Amino acid sequence: MEKIVLPEIENFHQLDVYIQNGGYEAAKSAFTQTTDQIIDTVKKSGLRGRGGAAFSAGLKWSFMPKNNDKPKYLCVNGDESEPGSFKDRQILERNPHQLIEGAIIACYAIGAKSAYIYVRGEYHKWIKLLQKALDDAYDKGFVGEKMKETFATDFFCNIYIHKGAGAYICGEESSLMNSIEGQRGYPRVKPPFPAQNGLWGNPTTINNVETITNIPPIIKKGWEWFSAIGEPKHPGTILFGVSGHVNNPGVFELPSGTLLTEIIYKYAGGVIGDKKIKCVIPGGSSMPPLRGDQLEGVKMDAESLKAVGSAIGTGGIMVMDEDTDLVRVLARIAKFYYHESCGQCTPCREGTGWMLKILNRLVRGEGTSKDLDLLVTIAKNIEGNTICALGDAAAWPVKFMIERFREEFEAIVKDEVSLEPKNKVHSMRHTANPIAPVQV
Amino acid sequence: MEFKFSEENLQKIEQILKKYPTKQAAVMPVLYIAQEQHGWISNEVMVETASILEMNEEDVFGVVTFYTMYHKKEMGKYHIQVCTNVSCMLRGGYQIYDAVKEKLGLDNGDVSNDKKFSLEEVECMGSCGTAPMIAVNEDYFENLDKEKALQILDSLN
Question: Which of A102, A142, A226, B94 is the most buried (most CB within 10 A)?
């Protein structure tokens, strides 16, 4: 199987090795085409965003206004903070020049003079590696004003790295832009969408690191080649990051539509101790979990996962064996979203805290069966009621975990609501059971 | 205590400002430089940053308090970060966290009296495939177990 994003070539991260293997030729060829031709090629290739939403990359580019004097921007999203996702770091380490080349082509296609690659702050090491690659590319005249000579074109662009500082929410595109602007990373209300009103109020496109890294091969080999790989509706390869209870965790680049069971058993070496699988989260912690008995025949692409009630997300596959305490796992996931909620929208700010409190109560063995319904009610009241998708991301694991593993949760809860004196104060439990008599 | 950027760092800031069309956009990288120089982000650091970037002080404060990687107090020489998120948790992240807590006698966010260690329970660091992990300042240590994690602590002087 051909690797598109992470070729197995020694020292591919070094500029000379990259050039020896045809590096920066895609950019050269891009500058002989019109921007419409490039956008059309990317559209026809069927490339879909690898950051979670799986939106058509070419279509996104085509939203950028054409006859507009405002400066335009490209943001490359390498915030990679979704628990279970660790693929972009592989690209930064092993293939930074293809990312840079992809960013150059994207800038040309959308007419951007500046690109910001936003990398999460914890990736100190990988930021240094990317900076080294970027400095080399500048030195050789592949980026910056010298591009004009190198590629014999009128166009040039600059690429900068912006280092995050430990906020999951900055992976959300509008929050990422606020962060680059030097503000708190609060998501913005949409519309207006970034293509109209993005960085500093100017037209902006935001693409994931993996998406952009796919661009040079598409330009070089054509959309027909790319669209024939994997599932027709979600073509190309995907970086699957497998973690949890497997013998050989890691990132595997495989065609979209590869069977989930094949990824787990063939590539990730199967489950530790040959245990059964209780639960798999297929796309990073925000995505609805699947039961162990649901996995047979599930293909890993956006459409197939949607059909079984989950989503591709970032392709971070978390495997949990039969002995896993899912109540604790869910409580940990809830803790994450409580910590990362930016606090702008009430349902998410308050709801994530309530869900965490209740789940911790369950973990302590003090939960009641009504708590389970209460959790689902809270989750449903967050979902769809927030500015950004973090609300949904916090709600889905709770809603679907309880729905799909209800017996696990029922096994540890008590049936009756305790009306001991501690219940007299106004608390959430009152809200849940408004008819409970309060004895004075 | 007054805070001023060193000459060298002022030059770095000059370079950073060239990357952005507004001065405010440089606030995150400038705060990183300040943190490197001063160790943490004090009120004085925020005042000086605001003055250099022509920002409101409260906006700088807003940024500092939003992002977890800016330290709002003096941290230890070795800032120990232990990931306990799901992928690490499934492979023993909490055993490591509990062992580190016990060994250092610190709780989440604490700094030791001699200022040698500080401890933070962190969210996913992107080491899921090499879990569990700890980070010491900027360096990742991966594929750990309890013993290896404690050995790393022992090796820090």
Answer: A102
